[in-house]
Design goal:
The protein is an alpha+beta fold and about 240 residues long. The protein has helices at about 35-45, 80, 105-115, 140-145, 155, 160-165, 170-180, 190-195, 210-215, 220-235, and strands at about 5-15, 20-25, 65, 70-75, 85-90, 100, 105. The radius of gyration is 21 Å and the shape is elongated. The N and C termini lie far apart (about 60 Å).
Length: about 240
């Protein structure tokens, strides 16, 4: 960094659905993240700015926003990598209702997670012996490949199918369903496969793979959804679920 302090021109979304971008001048610093920039504006320039964050180290996923047109975790996105010509445009996640400024309403996102039966249904009680799960089985490997989703909403915000079809369950909810389908301890697969086979379920995915490209955890929701497509088709042919 040169001796003279440089500035960033930062456009932040202000207001609700019908809001607008407002531009702020923010000092540019070494190793600065996008979340640092937003925090600077809130603490030094405009205390009325609303945004969401928690851990600041890439564990909670709550700081996801749209940065220069792409959904990202702002705590792990360095300004040096995204601020072309010293400019940043930061908005709320797309495909979700805006509460205020950079804060979105995640209720619909989590409701779809529930509709996809993304809750573990135990097949045993606390009085039974602990199930022994071999880590090298194909089912366990499939579950492990998708289990690190932390529901940040980045894939949902970047999904074209969600944008076109509001009924679509979305990549995160379907990825969670796939992990449970492959968990041999779970007893809810019939209901789960029925839930993800309906209109707006796994078969609505167009396999554009934007979810895979954008996932901060480097997961592959498209592969998980493809697995659900195969499993639901097989379940239908066996008469286990209805069309």
């Amino acid at each position: 960094m040169s001796g003279t302090q440089q500035e960033l021109s930062v456009s932040l979304w202000r207001g609700g659905k019908d809001g607008r971008y407002r531009t702020y001048a923010v000092p540019r610093r070494e190793s600065q993240t996008v979340l640092d920039v937003v925090t600077y504006v809130q603490r030094h320039l405009d205390p009325t700015l609303s945004y969401r964050f928690a851990c600041r180290v890439g564990v909670c996923g709550s700081c996801a926003m749209t940065v220069n047109g792409k959904p990202r975790w702002t705590c792990r996105t360095h300004v040096a990598k995204v601020a072309g010509a010293g400019r940043l445009e930061i908005g709320p996640l797309e495909n979700l209702p805006v509460i205020k400024d950079l804060t979105t309403d995640m209720a619909e996102f989590f409701q779809k997670w529930q509709r996809a039966k993304g809750v573990f249904a135990p097949s045993q009680t606390r009085h039974d012996s602990i199930a022994q799960i071999r880590p090298d089985t194909p089912a366990r490997a499939a579950a492990d490949a998708a289990i690190e989703c932390i529901n940040c909403g980045v894939c949902y915000a970047g999904c074209d199918t969600v944008r076109w079809n509001s009924a679509y369950l979305g990549p995160a909810a379907l990825t969670r369903a796939w992990t449970l389908v492959n968990d041999q301890r779970d007893a809810g697969n019939r209901e789960r496969l029925q839930a993800v086979a309906v209109d707006g379920g796994c078969h609505s995915c167009h396999s554009h793979q934007s979810c895979q490209e954008l996932c901060p955890q480097t997961l592959n929701p498209t592969a998980a959804i493809a697995g659900l497509k195969r499993r639901t088709a097989a379940a239908y042919l066996k008469g286990e679920i209805k069309a």
